[in-house]
Structure formats: structure tokens, C-alpha cells
Model the fold of this input.
Amino acid sequence: MRDVLMLTVPVAMAGAAHAGTLELVVEIPKLNVAEYHRPYVAIWIEDASGKVAANLSVWYDVDLKDQEGEKWLKDIRQWWRRSGRSLELPMDGVSSPTKPPGKNSMMFDTALGPIAKLPPGDYRIIVEASREVGGKELVEIPFNWAPGAEAQGSARGKEELGVVTLRLTR
Amino acid sequence: MTFAKRLLIAAAAASLMAGAAHAHRAWILPSATVVSGDKSWVTIDGAISNNLFFPDHRPMQIEAIAITAPDGSSVKPANAAVGQYRTTFDLELKQKGTYRIAQANSGLSPSWKEGAETRRWRGTMQDYLAQGIDKKPGVELVATSRRVERFVTDGAPTPLKATGKGLELGGATHPNDLYSGEEATFILTDNGKPAANIEVSVIQGGDRYRDEPGELKLKTGADGSLKLKLENAGMYWLEAGSAGTTTMEGKTLKSQATYVAVLEVLPG
Done:
């Protein structure tokens, strides 16, 4: 007897699963210092009450032996306190190596991952940088989230971060 | 109790307090209190000094230092060295959570008069009775307990487990969760009961570089609560002292407890 292969036809999902994108560009300034290290950076989303709703990316020395890069994660102070210290790193899709000076862009599919689970409302995307033998800086961009939403925003750091721009497209 | 006796007790208690609380400051200073990573170490100094936090008087005794890991087990200090002015040792943070590093001791401090002189002694109840000190004329007995401690957290903080002995810190705010400009709420307990209306002194480190000591004088509430809001990031020395009564082997005696915690306030 031949097995009949049942093909299920996927039904188009209504509402939630928009393939929108959240595009973030984080500029790391080129600094003229004697000893330069690429900054450790954490990028996350907080809701209106200040609770961390999603971790998007953490840039640190992922490739050091014995995970020694993790030793300095606590210097991304606000992120460490609000979320980092309760996480198991490395986290797939979140952990990333450090990035060089210049504009670094990231795209997140809003139908996937923690962003897809965000209830509609007011949020802030926060970028915090900490540089070895250097300074620390944090910038925030507020935005409103709803499925299919579009938003734009930018913030500018003074020392450790340049311009950070956010674009939410349908 | 006659008035004279009451005076004597007050005087004895006051002079003992002066000796214990204000002579020098004991502290334990780790290289970090908030730690990340899997194979992290901290290095710790213990000293009794005048300046905060510069060792300039006596090292802390290493035998009296107890380290408790987040799971309650004891950890031995590593690479310990007792120097001229400070004791230094390392601690490997093998577990995630909060470590407690403490130097605690308790005992009896009787005092009595021999002629014009006031004699003092320190020791256990057993020795006190065995050596017949309880028979000394006009002996005033004070039970003392003293704890100096510090907390270090690797990863997320774990709740502090109270020992129930002497003065200790607890409450809503975890000691490794302090940030400048934010109000912390602690509860001080004395032998497990709220340490009500006791005096607490808080001094920021770096007093060498200031003219004024900058001492914050606070008092706990009736429930032992202490609200602390520190505007500057840095290391702070906190001392609380309480006086009361306690019973030991059926006798009621004066008790005195001192508690010192060194708190790190990070930029908020």
C-alpha cells in the first residue's frame, strides 16, 4: 500500500506576522587615544514601566579563551543591572563580537524573536556603550510599537556613541 | 537598682562603646562587588584604620574571617597574607549569586573595680564563671557582639540569609544593588528582632581628601528600617551600634552589638 503524503497548505496568518523590519544604525566614533579598544555595547528595548522587554544585541569579546570576555560585561552597567546579570550568555542571535568605529547597522525582523511578542505600547530602545580604559555612555530612542507600525527616531551620544538611528518599517 | 549602680552601668557601657565603636574603623574591601563572568576572582583587603579606606593601623585577623558562598557553604580565603597594615586574600567566585565575607565575634565584657582602678576582661561565659570573675565586687557584665561584613555578587544577587546573631543587615534593598541618587531600604535586626531606634553612621570613603568627615547620622525606625539615599557613587562605611539587654544562662545582662558594613554605590 502506498502512503499518501498529506500536504498541508499553510493558511495565511492574519494580523500578527507582518514581515516588518526594525533597522538600527549605531555609530561608534573614531577616537584618537593612545590605547583604543572597541567598546562593549548592549542594545535593548524597555517598556514604559522601565522593564526590559527584549535584548537585541550585546557586543563583547566573544572569542576569548575560557569566555574571559564576559568578565567585563558588568561594565555595561545599566544593562547589566536591568537584564544582563540574569541572562545566560552567549545567547544565540544576541551575542556578537565587538564592532569597529563607523556606522554599524542591524536589521531585525519584527515578526520573529522577542520583538514579535511585544504588546502594543510605548517603548524605548536603549544603546549603552562601555569602553576599556575609556568612558561609558547611554542613549535612548522612544518609539511606539504596534504590529504594522512605522516609526523613526534618533539620538546622539557625546563621547562614546555617535548618532544612533531607528527605523521601524512595515 | 540603686541610682549609683545605674550610673556605673551607664558609665561602663559608655566607655566600652567608646572603645569599640570610635577607636578605629574596621573594614573589608573587595576589588569589586558586582562581578560578571564564569571564572571570576576578587581580591580583598581587611584592615582596621583611621582613614577610609587606606590601611594605616592594623591588619584584620585572617582566622576570624568567614566567607559564605551563595549556597551557604564555607569558602577558605586563598593566597592569604597578613601584612603590616592590612590582610589581603583572594576569593574565587565559583558560584553565581551573593557571597558574604564577614568577621564576627562575640563574648562577654565584664568590668569591675579594684580599688580606684576599673578592670576589664573579655571571654566566654564558661571562662567567666570558671575564673570566678562573676564573684568580683560590683562586677558589671556586658555581652558584646561585633560583626564587620561585605557582600560580593557574581551575576544576579541572591537573597541574604540572616544568621539571627547580633546586629545584621537585611531588608528590601540588596547591598550589591546600590546606585547613586536612589533610595535604599534596609532593615537592621538585633538577634533576629528589629533593631529599633538605633544610631547608624555612614561615611563616604576618601576622607583623606576632605576637611569635613562628612558623617551622615541616621536612626533606624521602630521596625528597624533604615532609608539611605546616597547622591555620590563610591564606597561607604556604615556602622550601627545597639545597646540593650539579653539573657544568658538565666542571667539578664546588658548587651551591646556593633555592626559594620562597607557598601559600594555605583553610578545610577
In short: The interface with chain B takes residues 66-68, 70-74, 77, 80-81, 84-86 of chain A (CB under 8 Å). Chain A has one domain: 21-169.
